[in-house]
Amino acid sequence: MTARPTWLMALSTPFRACHLCDHGVNIEDARHCRCSQVVQPARTLPVHTARAPTGPCGPDARFMDFRGLNP
Description:
Elements: H1 6-10, H2 16-20, E1 24-27, E2 30-33, E3 45-46, H3 47-50
Antiparallel strand pairs: 1-2, 2-3
Protein backbone atom coordinates (compact mmCIF):
# COMPACT_ATOMS: atom_id res chain seq x y z
CA MET A 1 0.00 0.00 0.00
CA THR A 2 1.37 3.41 -0.93
CA ALA A 3 1.00 6.44 1.29
CA ARG A 4 -1.40 9.10 0.12
CA PRO A 5 0.19 12.45 -0.83
CA THR A 6 -0.11 15.21 1.77
CA TRP A 7 -2.17 17.42 -0.56
CA LEU A 8 -4.68 14.61 -1.07
CA MET A 9 -5.00 13.95 2.67
CA ALA A 10 -5.59 17.68 3.22
CA LEU A 11 -8.79 17.53 1.16
CA SER A 12 -10.52 15.15 3.57
CA THR A 13 -9.25 15.95 7.05
CA PRO A 14 -10.60 18.04 9.92
CA PHE A 15 -7.06 19.40 10.46
CA ARG A 16 -6.53 20.60 6.90
CA ALA A 17 -4.16 23.38 7.99
CA CYS A 18 -1.82 20.82 9.57
CA HIS A 19 -1.60 18.88 6.32
CA LEU A 20 -0.52 22.03 4.48
CA CYS A 21 1.76 23.36 7.24
CA ASP A 22 5.54 23.19 6.82
CA HIS A 23 5.85 21.98 10.44
CA GLY A 24 3.89 18.83 9.67
CA VAL A 25 5.34 15.40 9.07
CA ASN A 26 3.67 12.06 8.29
CA ILE A 27 4.55 9.23 10.66
CA GLU A 28 2.95 5.86 9.97
CA ASP A 29 0.16 7.44 7.88
CA ALA A 30 -0.74 9.93 10.63
CA ARG A 31 0.08 13.65 10.64
CA HIS A 32 2.30 14.99 13.43
CA CYS A 33 3.53 18.47 14.33
CA ARG A 34 7.20 19.28 14.82
CA CYS A 35 6.94 23.04 15.42
CA SER A 36 9.52 24.13 18.00
CA GLN A 37 6.90 26.27 19.75
CA VAL A 38 4.60 23.26 20.14
CA VAL A 39 6.98 20.40 20.97
CA GLN A 40 10.52 19.94 22.27
CA PRO A 41 13.27 19.68 19.63
CA ALA A 42 13.48 16.33 17.82
CA ARG A 43 9.99 15.36 18.99
CA THR A 44 6.61 15.34 17.36
CA LEU A 45 3.02 15.60 18.58
CA PRO A 46 -0.06 14.16 16.85
CA VAL A 47 -2.01 16.99 15.25
CA HIS A 48 -5.25 16.03 17.01
CA THR A 49 -3.44 16.70 20.31
CA ALA A 50 -1.72 19.90 19.14
CA ARG A 51 -4.98 21.30 17.73
CA ALA A 52 -7.20 20.36 20.68
CA PRO A 53 -8.91 23.31 22.43
CA THR A 54 -6.32 23.09 25.22
CA GLY A 55 -3.46 22.07 22.88
CA PRO A 56 -0.42 24.28 22.21
CA CYS A 57 -1.51 25.24 18.69
CA GLY A 58 -5.23 25.28 19.43
CA PRO A 59 -8.18 25.02 17.05
CA ASP A 60 -7.11 28.18 15.20
CA ALA A 61 -3.73 26.69 14.05
CA ARG A 62 -1.81 29.44 15.85
CA PHE A 63 1.65 28.36 14.63
CA MET A 64 0.78 27.39 11.07
CA ASP A 65 3.56 28.11 8.59
CA PHE A 66 2.67 27.79 4.93
CA ARG A 67 4.91 29.07 2.14
CA GLY A 68 1.86 30.33 0.25
CA LEU A 69 1.00 32.71 3.11
CA ASN A 70 4.42 34.36 3.34
CA PRO A 71 5.56 36.92 0.76
